[in-house]
Design brief:
Helix content: 40-55%
Number of helices: 8
Number of strands: 2
Radius of gyration: 18 Å
Oligomer: single chain
Strand content: 5-15%
Distance between the termini: 20 Å
Order of helices and strands: HEHEHHHHHH
Number of domains: 2
C-alpha cells in the first residue's frame, strides 16, 4: 500500500483518502483468547496508523468511522495497537503521542444540523478544489443531498450518514 500511495503522489495525484466504515462489530472475541485473524487485522491497523504518523504513507489521510466499543476491542486484540489508540475520556489521562482518535463532537462545535451541513459542504468543496476536482455545481448538489439526510434523520445520528453522503458525492468529482 505504501508503494502504491507514494507512486500515486509522484504521478501527480495531490493526495489519497482511505475511508473505512464499520457497519457491524469487528475484532470482537467470543472467548478470552484472541483469534489469529483478529490479531492479524489489528496488526494491519497498527501498521496503517504508524505509516501515517511517521510519514511512510505519502500525502494520505486515513479515516475510520467506527462503532462504539471498537477501540476497546482493538486494544484487547493487539497490545501494540492498544498503545497507539490510548483512549482518553474526560481529559483524565495523557493522550498517546499519535493521538489518532477524534470523536465526532470534536469535529464541529455547530449545534444546529443546518450549520453543521453548511460547514461540511464548505470543507468538502475546499478538499475537492485542492485535489484538482471539478467543483462546478458541487456546492448546491452537496447541500441538496445533505438537507435530504438531515430531514430523514432525527437526533444527533445524522452526522455519520451526512458525512458518508457528502464524501461519496465529492469522491465522484475527483
Amino acid at each position: 500500500m505504501k508503494t502504491v500511495l507514494s507512486s500515486l503522489y509522484h504521478l501527480g495525484v495531490n493526495g489519497t483518502t482511505l475511508l473505512f466504515d464499520e457497519n457491524e462489530k469487528t475484532l470482537v472475541n467470543s472467548t478470552s483468547t484472541v483469534s489469529k485473524k483478529n490479531k492479524i487485522a489489528a496488526n494491519l491497523i497498527r501498521r496503517i496508523i504508524d505509516g501515517c504518523s511517521n510519514g511512510l504513507m505519502t500525502a494520505t489521510i486515513v479515516v475510520f468511522a467506527i462503532l462504539p466499543g471498537f477501540l476497546e476491542e482493538c486494544a484487547k486484540s493487539y497490545q501494540a495497537l492498544g498503545q497507539r489508540l490510548q483512549i482518553v475520556r474526560n481529559g483524565c489521562q495523557k493522550p498517546s503521542w499519535r493521538w489518532p482518535v477524534l470523536p465526532v463532537q470534536a469535529i464541529s462545535s455547530f449545534q444546529a444540523p443546518e450549520d453543521f451541513l453548511k460547514n461540511a459542504v464548505n470543507h468538502y468543496l475546499n478538499i475537492v478544489k485542492k485535489l484538482g476536482g471539478n467543483i462546478e455545481g458541487l456546492g448546491p448538489k452537496l447541500s441538496e443531498h445533505g438537507e435530504f439526510v438531515i430531514n430523514n434523520n432525527v437526533g444527533s445520528g445524522y452526522k455519520r450518514e451526512l458525512v458518508k453522503v457528502l464524501a461519496t458525492i465529492s469522491l465522484e468529482r475527483l
